[in-house]
């Protein structure tokens, strides 16, 4: 909890009761009207609001809607504490954006339990956001190391998610894959710039060093037991394996290659061929698609290649959306 609890009620006795219940555990601020509640919320950014409904200047429903309409306060959970006990009143409270609804006279244990529960949910949500932010930063770290790839990691992650959905993955699993895929090349942090950014073809010794990025990425990411990072570790390790064998680092083939890595392999190669690099120009789309199609059974799993071409319009929409976004960013950087 970062901010105090805000208690809003136009009756001093109700404020006093909630103060008695909650002050032993929490810092509190108070308001006796809707307008004052909005001002106090803007000033103190409370962790949670306990809000009366029947107030003379502005009812609680309006206050709640105003809080939810403001980007600075929309994430603050609101619990209505009111004498309005009809089902319709409660439904109106949830429709206004409240997370809970308590009817007066309140029970001290219930108030404390509900407050504790909703603060815990806020903490969990904040932790999840921090976790996702860390994931994005890991992806960005590998992109900065290999700066010529531009927004490659985010495009190929979107392609991977779309291809996974076409292959029958659940929406949540697709979301996890989209978060994990950008870390596929995190091992390039350990590759010397002279090799990573060489404008020409790598010699055998340089290529051997470049290939170690898969194992380096696995070693970095597999240190965490978090399922998402375990997925990312597997992808980093296996996205250069090939369906027909002959890939690296372990020379896996067929279904011995985890499906998540088989999916990412297609997305990664498709985007890499469509993108200019220090050692090549972007290929024409027809040539890229011919290469993907002809690689079925050798580099890529044929089933996944079929799915890829079945959703090709969606893939191209993603490509165009990212191209437009990239152009917009370039224009902004020139201003």
Labels describing this entry:
single chain; 335 residues; alpha/beta; 5-stranded parallel sheet; 15 helices; elongated
Could you explain how this protein is built, in words?
The chain is an alpha/beta fold and 335 residues long. It contains 15 helices and five strands. The protein has helices at 12-22, 34-44, 60-69, 87-96, 108-145, 152-166, 171-180, 193-196, 204-211, 213-221, 227-238, 259-274, 285-294, 302-310, 312-334, and strands at residues 5-8, 28-31, 48-51, 78-82, 100-103. A five-stranded parallel sheet has the order 2-1-3-4-5, sandwiched between helices. α1 links the parallel β1 and β2 (28-31). The radius of gyration is 27 Å and the shape is elongated. The two termini are 41 Å apart. Residues 331-335 have low confidence and may be disordered.
Summarize the structure.
The chain is of the alpha/beta class.
Shape: elongated
Strand order of the largest sheet: 2-1-3-4-5
Number of helices: 15
The count of strands amounts to: 5
Overall structural class, as computed from helix and strand content, comes to: alpha/beta
Q: What is the first-to-last residue Cα distance?
A: 41 Å
Q: What fraction strand?
A: 5-15%
| Major β-sheet profile | 5 strands, parallel
- The helix content is 55-70%
